[in-house]
Input
Amino acid sequence: MFDKILIANRGEIACRVIKTARRMGIKTVAVYSEADAGALHVEMADEAVAIGPAPSAQSYLVADRIVEACLKTGAQAVHPGYGFLSEKAEFCEKLKKAGITFIGPDVHAIGAMGDKIESKKLAKAAGVSTVPGYLGVIKDEAEAASIAREIGYPVMIKASAGGGGKGMRVAWNDAEARDGFRSASNEARSSFADDRVFIEKYIQEPRHIEIQVLADTHGNCVYLGERECSIQRRHQKVIEEAPSPFLDPQTRKAMGEQAVALAKAVQYRSAGTVEFIVGPDKSFYFLEMNTRLQVEHPVTEEVTGLDLVELMIRVAAGERLPFGQEDVKLNGWSIEARVYAEDPTRNFLPAIGRVTRYRPPAEGKRADGSRVRVDTGVYEGGEISMYYDPMIAKLITWGPDRATATRAMGEALDGFVIRGAGHNISFLAALMGLERFGEGRLSTNLIAEEFPDGFHGITPEADTLRRLLAVALMAERRVAERDAMISGQATGQLRRSLEGWVARTGGVNHPGSVMPVDGGADVRLDDRTMAVRTGWELGDLLWTGTVDGVPMTVQIERKGTRWVLFHGGAELSVQVLTPRAGDLAALMPVKLPPDMSKFLLSPMPGLLVSVVVAEGEEVKAGQELAVVEAMKMENILRAESDGRVKKVHAAKGASLAVDEKIIEFE
Ligand code: ADP
Ligand code: ADP
Ligand code: MG
Output
């Protein structure tokens, strides 16, 4: 076994690898860029080596720097995590030359699977079912249209070197095929410096289901069940789970055996993932193989009880797999939600910044038998940098069944406190609350279908609203009690709260009053009394307790004269007023926010690099409209829905304020 390994990555995955290595008694070396000098993975590792400036092209992606760091610290092996150098064959070559072990597959397997066209040919030869299509490089638009017609619409045009959901377009007719060829190859050229594209059949209403494989260097290879990753936004995974609610044991076995056949065909070693696209009739087709640890590997660990990082390290050290296929048992259900620093109500634009408060939910067992796990690379006071993937954490739950795991996820999201940077927790909570999610009726179109006009937050249903108002009233009572204890103040402070209040939200006054009792209060609201029980104290960000016996986790904060409550993905702003003030508030004119849905606004302060549509032009949802550069990054702004451009308000080169108008639609 190795004495010391280096982790050639950052963020949550670097931290996660370090944890396992430490448990195995292996010393760890972190590497870090200038932007990451104070990062969590640097603090967690036994040693750390600086490898260059913030941009990853000058640090985390420079293979020579990593090799140097190994030689300097005496690390015998490298775990690459995911992204960065994890699937770069040249990196493995360099390590090999320097006598350092790569904790991953052999360079040949990486090479063979790194290219989508080549890997499909290989899969076909290994007897794996592949998506019908044309496994050649398309040379121009005309050829794209003619091959697409031959395959039969709809088709998908894909970059052979693609990854991370980039460089792919769906086409339903010749015009879209020509257009899609152009944009897919452009995107491929700029993202992967390789513009080869190919075309395959687009599977409709598809699910993304992938098989985890694990192989040693002694010819043993097993599959560790599947993960369903159908909940995607723009072909990128948002929620993953294991097992899939769609697979029956026969299909699971058939997919598993094909995945193993493919792995064996390339003499695979280490952990790898064979991705399939699955049709509504359970027909399945090979998509690609990822020759690395996958972002969503924790759900497999939760249902198999295995530590994939440990097994990768053992296999790299030459050990045999300690179990066979018959020993692999799937137990219970696990779900993962990716928590990103992005604003779901602003078309998921990055919302990075310094994390002023960071309180992830407690890890470990819960009262109902479920478990919570948080894989994170962030700490309170740390910064989510613009240079890297804006992932904050992965929240993972396990339960004996899917419903329990889902409930645990909802409650863990309620209790996940992040301030300073923006985050997508409300969106994740909304997904967990979808009836369709509960029924397991998933497809890669789920997000687009459930949120056709984007995500605009959610409104709590009547019962939840009543409970949240009771929480706000009780909190206000605590403020009144505290105020009454301050000496030298005008009399009557506490009496104010006994006379009755109104809780005002959404322009509606709800009369209420609070009667403190042991362990909480009885709150009367709209002529109904609710038993509110909690250990909450003023200043706690998290309110946990029960309302009429229903357990609630609520994030609560006082902002000026308002209480802001967050629960179940909904944010609620409540004012607690005296009845007189409530009456007067109801008479105040309401300033309606102007309707901005007809405008494309600048999501951030920045430079307008280009406007690519003209006045009078028809635009389609998803179409590129303008490019804004901010903090050295180009952000492509796209149409949220179909429409026609009425007026272009800002010209190329303009310096934009946040929310400044760029384009007006009809
Ligand atoms: P997974 O399949 O493990 O869920 P993702 O597609 O989410 O992986 O990608 C994992 C990480 O690797 C992300 O940070 C993504 O940006 C990065 N990534 C994946 N493929 C590529 C690629 N071909 N080039 C650059 N980055 C990639
Ligand atoms: P990447 O390398 O970017 O991960 P993949 O080939 O794995 O690319 O595809 C990513 C996603 O795109 C899939 O999870 C699926 O949602 C969608 N997709 C890819 N190919 C097809 C197809 N032939 N039919 C339908 N959807 C597809
Ligand atoms: Mg993929």
User: Anything to note?
Assistant: The first strand starts at residue 4 and ends at 7. The CA atoms of residues 431 and 437 lie 7 Å apart. The pocket of adenosine-5'-diphosphate (ligand 2) is lined by residues 131, 156, 162-165, 168, 200, 202-203, 206, 208, 232, 235, 275, 277, 287-288, 444 (CB under 6 Å). The two ends are 67 Å apart (CA to CA).
